[in-house]
Amino acid sequence: MGVEIERKFLVDAARFRPPTDGTEIRQGYLARSPERSVRVRVTRQLPASGASAESATLTIKGPDGLTRLEYEYPIPATDAAELLDRLALPGEIKKVRYRVEVSGRTFEVDVYEDRHEGLVTAEIELDSAEEDVVVPDWVTREVTGDPAWTNAALSDPYR
After folding, report:
1. Domains of the chain
2. DSSP letters for 39-68
3. pLDDT at 1
4. What contacts 41, CB < 8 A, 6 or more positions away?
5. Local structure of 154: helix, strand or coil
6. Nearest-angstrom CA–CA distance, 26 and 3
């Protein structure tokens, strides 16, 4: 069984200095509800100065919270693009993800584009829900477990 233990934070965009390399992400949802979501994601490594191959995943997640079920499977990038273009629910998300080391731990910081431009979030995956986390000074507020800040919720154009 796949389990994700993750904390999520809002980030002050003015204080966050992204590294030069990141990952472009295009993602959409085939299903999204408080009980479950099915996400399609296409990624491409930056900088885009050279040829960079795309990769893609299909991810199924259980109810939102600090700990939840998560199953992730690689799929062909061409299939993912077609799913996003033809079957995904309205509200595609585009963002650039940066991996940032803080006190020996990796935060994944997402800088959103398009209709969410200006939004920056950070997530950290944990081995246990009781783990202590050193929160960097560019974090403003924890939103773990707040359904309004999940990517599935952010993708909903009607919210």
Report:
1. 3-155 (2.40.320.10)
2. EEEEEEES-TTS---EEEEEEEE-SSSSEE
3. 58
4. 25, 26, 27, 56, 57, 59, 80
5. helix
6. 23
- H or E element, residue 101: strand 93-102
pLDDT digits (tens, 9 = 90+) for 116-125: 999 999 999 9
Q: For tokens 């960097």, name the residue.
A: 136
Residue 2 has a CB neighbour count (10 Å cut-off) of: 12
Q: Residue 115's closest CA among 92, 134, 98, 142?
A: 92
**pLDDT value at residue 2:** 85
d(CA 66, CA 127): 11
Instruction: Supply the residues annotated as catalytic.
Output: 29
3-class state of residue 112 by DSSP: strand
42 burial via Cβ count (<10 Å: 0-12, 13-18, 19+) = buried
Which pLDDT tens digit goes with each residue over 139-150? 999 999 899 999
How far apart CA 128 and CA 106 sit, in angstroms, is 15
CA angle 28–158–75, rounded 5-degree value:
10
3-class secondary-structure state, position 73:
strand
Length of the chain: 159
> 85 CB contacts (<8 Å, ≥6 apart)?
none
